[in-house]
Design brief:
With about 180 residues, this protein is mainly α. The protein is about 75% helix and about 0% strand. It contains six helices and no strands.
């Protein structure tokens, strides 16, 4: 039998806590603190690793749905045409089968999709800023509807993403 990832990480933790930490405690308190922090990160890895693929798959589905909704809402906006094209290209040309994709490839894909969500938020912020700077615009127009729909899609994604991160951190009993 060979050790699994949990066994390897536990072994490194024992080495840190039983050998390095006592040796560093008196002579190098800062390094002892770093060893404790490294131990905490290893514990976090042990607790998140078993469900990481499921978490990445869930996030991937959420990102794809969010971007499809935002792109759909912004499709008629000429100022968003480049971004809508980038979203369409990312969500259709590189369809990811999350059950057959490696963790590193899925994580990289999610990073790309998260960047597109950020670009949507930046575009919406710029449009809202420009609209509020326009002195003749006292009320909302019908053109604001798609922008509000895109904002709602991205904002609700960001809330769900924050909840997932918070739940992940709670596995260690830490809040920051």
């Amino acid at each position: 039998m060979r050790p699994d990832l949990d066994d390897v990480l536990s072994g490194v933790q024992r080495l840190l806590l039983n050998d390095f930490l006592p040796a560093l405690a008196a002579s190098a308190p800062f390094l002892a603190e770093q060893a404790m922090y490294a131990n905490l990160l290893l514990e976090y890895g042990k607790k998140t690793w078993p469900t990481l693929h499921l978490a990445l798959a869930e996030e991937h589905g959420d990102l794809c749905a969010t971007l499809a909704s935002a792109a759909g809402a912004l499709r008629g906006d000429t100022r968003a045409s480049e971004l809508v094209g980038a979203i369409d290209a990312a969500t259709t040309s590189a369809v990811t089968d999350v059950t057959r994709t490696s963790l590193d490839a899925l994580a990289a894909r999610n990073r790309t999709l998260r960047e597109l969500v950020s670009r949507v938020v930046i575009l919406l912020d710029a449009q809202e800023s420009a609209a509020s700077d326009h002195p003749q615009r006292a009320t909302h127009s019908a053109a604001d509807g798609p922008r509000h729909a895109a904002r709602a899609a991205t904002d609700t994604y960001l809330v769900r993403a924050a909840r997932r991160q918070y739940a992940n951190l709670q596995q260690l009993g830490l809040i920051w």
